[in-house]
Amino acid sequence: MTLRADDLTTASDTALVMAISRYDQRALAEVYRRHGGAVFGLGRRLLSAAAVAEELVQEVFLWLWEQPEKFDPSRGSLRAFLLARCHSRAVDILRSDASRRRREERDAAQTATAGYDLEREVWDMAVADHVRDAMARLPEGERAAIELAYFGGHTYREVATMLHEPEGTIKSRIRSGLKRLRTTLVDAGGLGVQDS
After folding, report:
1. CA atoms of 171 and 174, how far apart (whole Å)
2. Is the dihedral of CA 21, 22, 25, 26 positive or negative?
């Protein structure tokens, strides 16, 4: 049974989820209208950054679209179900960010304490010149993201906030920029850049 457009606003959440299981996009839009603000509010409170919270909201509703059978109305309301999923994913994101930050700090400490000999310093200066030239050839969006993340020491989330872009966009720009850098540096003399 398909819900008519005028039935959507009066349908129960359970009926809407059943319609979503039949790939009714209008039902998903109605669920988003009812509960999207609450999911965004929780995501924003847990993650602080609006752009990251927006991505989280999209992820939660995409998950509902792909797996509507996970909702069991006998265990609670749809809003509680969506908020629980939002909370779980936000915790995963926070843990991942904390782990990445610890790894970056550990790598930076190891680099700082490792001694350089003169030959290595000369090599590093030559590489730095090649990197500087390669960076100048990147599109502005990729260059800005890489400079802030790798040379400015900012996290992806901080870069996204500074550039007013979603974190996913920043990650994509950094990834594509690093690929361009690798190609340019290899062509310039056998130098390479490693993705992190």
Report:
1. 5
2. negative
